[in-house]
Amino acid sequence: MRPALSGDTKVAGVIGDPVRHSLSPALHNAGFAHLGLDWAYVAFEVPAGGGAGAVAAMRALGIDGLSVTMPLKAEVVEACDELSPAAAMLGAVNCVRRSGDRMIGENTDGVGFVNSLRRQAGVEFAGMHAVVLGGGGAARAVVAALVSEGASVTIVNRSMESAVRAAELGKAAAAAAGVGSSMSVMVGAPGAVRDADLVVNATPLGMNAADPMPVAPEMLRRGQMAVDLIYMPAVTPFLEVADEAGAQILNGTGMLLFQAAEQFKMWTGRDAPVKAMGAAVGLDIAG
Predict the structure, then answer these.
(1) Residue 35: Cβ within 10 Å count
(2) SS3 content of the chain, % helix, strand, coil (to 5)
């Protein structure tokens, strides 16, 4: 059980807009309670343009950790005193940790993605062919993580400029990890989905009922794994048609959990109790 709030309670939180729907407070507070840590995690609704001010407030108020979500991940980069290699490469921060008086920008999205597939579905990435739909910040983090694990990746996106940028980052990640070749990641057409072992929707399509599908349903097939980074709704139209096609499906709740677990350890110095944290958001994580 977590101690009662006091003058010694350490505070962490999530910044973004909107964040009132966020599952992050439930995740982190369950972890703190499970370990009996005198920490509290809250949501701060911060609109676009407010990222630098939020980091300044973190410094001024003695806040010990911030999770960063849309639309602030890029603008927070400039407000940090230092960036981790992942955050610097991606040009995006999803976590700020305190090191004395210095604010360190981190990015745990990629490691959260691969750890979620490992723990939830036993996925091994070496030799896998993945297709990532999208070219934005979430897609770039997933691409970099996949190629670092030895997967080959094809990026499919409506904007060629964004797709090329994601491919360039993927190649840099492969080189940094010492795996694969410059052809481990490339830009492709939607038809690449048919031959993929793993298909990842890293676009926002599916958050609203009126959204079009991110890929034609006939591209999906039995034997594939289909992952949607969206977690609200829990089953998007993309996952519905993938399930109907016989693919194994996962939504973004696992990625949310495992990227949060990395942040939890950075802030507290303790391994995150992922089973307890997962239970708080309806996930049954073994071990």
Answers:
(1) 16
(2) 40, 20, 40
Is 10-107+254-280 in CATH node 3.40.50.10860? yes
Tens-level pLDDT at each residue, the chain (287 residues): 777 888 899 999 999 999 998 999 999 999 999 999 999 999 999 999 999 999 999 999 999 999 999 999 999 999 999 999 999 999 999 999 999 999 999 999 999 999 999 999 999 999 999 999 999 989 999 999 999 999 999 999 998 999 999 989 888 888 876 665 555 888 999 999 999 999 999 999 999 888 999 999 999 999 999 999 999 999 999 999 999 999 999 999 999 999 999 999 999 999 999 999 999 999 999 86
Among candidate residues 10, 73, 171, 265, the one labeled active-site is: 73
Domain ranges of the chain: 10-107+254-280, 110-251
Q: Which residues of 239-255 are buried (b: 16+ CB within 10 A; e: fewer)?
A: bebbeebebebbbbbbb
| 171 given a catalytic annotation | no
Q: Which amino acid is at 276?
A: A
CATH level 3 topology of 110-251: Rossmann fold (3.40.50)
pTM exceeds 0.90, yes or no: yes
